[in-house]
Every structure is written in structure tokens, then in C-alpha cells.
Amino acid sequence: MKRVRHLVSVSDLEPFELRQVLRIARMLKARYMAGERIIPVLRGRSVALIFEKPSTRTRVSMELAVVQLGGHPIVLTKKAMQLSRGEPLKDTARVLSRYVDAIAARVYRHEDLVELARYSSVPVINMLSDYEHPLQAISDMFTIWEILGRLRGVNLVFIGDGRDNVAHSLILAASMLGVNMTVACPPELKPDERILEVAERYAADTGSRITVLHDPVEAVKGADIVYTDVWVSMGEEALAEEKKRILRPYQVNGKLMKEAGKAYFMHCLPAHRGEEVTDDVIESERSIVWLQAENRLHVQKAVLAYLLNARV
Ligand code: CP
Ligand code: NVA
After folding, report:
1. How many structural domains comprise the chain?
2. Among all ligands shown, which has an atom nearest to the Cα of 135?
């Protein structure tokens, strides 16, 4: 029996598969830009999109991705499902697997995605958990490739919470693609050790350098990209005051961007202006945050086509 391919972590793909997804995305985006909006390789297939948390970009771009591939998306909020009345996830996974061709989910607890994948007989795609945000990171690698024309040797610097879901996925994706990744974070908010271990294994092959340090000014020297994310992620509301206090020295503002020279600015969005980033930086001409958001659509189509073995 063919192995079901999931994307719970970026590292569920092999590095060569990740590069293949980026190439598919490039081709799909070019065709889209040339006016070919529908490429119906998922005709007759359907994808459940489950949201336990709010979403703007992922919600809209995933639904459109399925539609533009000719498939049928079914958007479900947890509240509208029996899950909210206590139906176990493993039962939900087995039932949905009998209707749809893939299940994508945005959840609070990463373990819930792992459980979904364990009991699902169709691909499970992580649309953000408290541990990773693979679709974001893969899409961001595509954006960097598009802007700089290369990935190997690019210096990507993440400033802020090292345990952030987007940061975790960026570390993995960077290490798989030969991107050098520096994380500048407070000592108490370092990336998870397991993520760093996996990344170091990839880095040994790709030559990528993974560095964790605590001084944002030191971190941005030589940066090609300065990246940040919110200080308080969804589900961390109780920690808000404490995190904002610890992360205050890690704001990406005009002064820090000056230290970074000609670096581009990236943010997965939504942004909290005045916290992790200032208005002048996000609105500056070095900011590529809107392109980042745009590319989610094309990259997610590539991910869906790849995982569902649809030839494009
Ligand atoms: N970046 C991102 O995933 O945005 P949403 O929360 O709006 O989906
Ligand atoms: N780290 C943020 C990302 C939002 C897309 C969060 O989890 O809320």
C-alpha cells in the first residue's frame, strides 16, 4: 500500500521534495500570472479545512487553492463540528478520511495534528499549530527565492520569540535548502531543542549555518532578510504581559533595519505595529510582506498537488 504523505512538519518532506514543491509553485504562479486561473488537476477531489483558531490568509488562500486546482474545499470551524461536543479527534480523522482526499487543520495543540495524521488515511496538512507553521515557511522560502534569485547561502535572520511556530518551521526549511538561519531571541525563548537537532542534521548536508544568539544588532549584520512575528501567538493570551516585557528589546524598527543595511523585511502577518515591528519598517520599500501573503496561494497549490499526486 502506498504511504500516505502528511505535512505536519516541514521535515515531513525530504529536502529534494521541498525543492520540487518550490519548482511546482514557480510554474503554477507563472501560469496564474499568464491568466490561467484554473488548472483542474484535483477535479472530483475534496479537501476538508478545519479551523480551531482565527485565520485570514490561510483560510482564504487554502480555499482558493483547492478551487483553482478544480477541487472542492469544505471549510469547517471546530465550533460547527461534533469535535466541539467531545467527539474524539481519532474518530473525526477516520470518518473524514472516508469522505475527503485530504484534511488540513489549524489547531492549538500540535499533538492534535499528530493524532489526526495517525488516524487519517488521507494526507493531513498543518495549517498552523502551537509548534509549527509549515505552509508559511515553505511559502516564505519561495518568496526569498523569487526576490533574491537563490536560496543557498542566503542569510535569514529571525528576531523575536525563538519558540514561535513560524520560527520553528523557518529553521527547518532553511536548513533543508542551504539558507543560513540566525535567530535572535531572549535566552528564555530559545527555539525548541528538537527543532535545532533536526535542522543541524540537514545543515550538515546542505552547508546551512544555524545560529541562535541574543543580541539583535549582532544578528542582523550581513542579513539578506530580517523576519519577525508577533510576540504573543494565538493561544498565548495569558502570557501576553510577560512576553511583551521580555521581547521589548527585540522590536524590528528603523534603527535595527539600518544596522541590517539593505536587508528585506518579512513578516508572516498579522502584524502588531508598535510591538514586534514599527509602522515605518512594515510600510518601507524593503518590506515584502504583501508578496509573502500573495505567494501563500501559489505555494499551497503546489503542496496540495504534490501531496495528492496530481500531475500539473
Ligand atoms: N500568516 C498567516 O497564517 O495568517 P492567518 O493567521 O491570517 O492565516
Ligand atoms: N505565531 C503566530 C502566527 C500567526 C500566523 C500565531 O501563532 O498566532
Report:
1. 2
2. 1
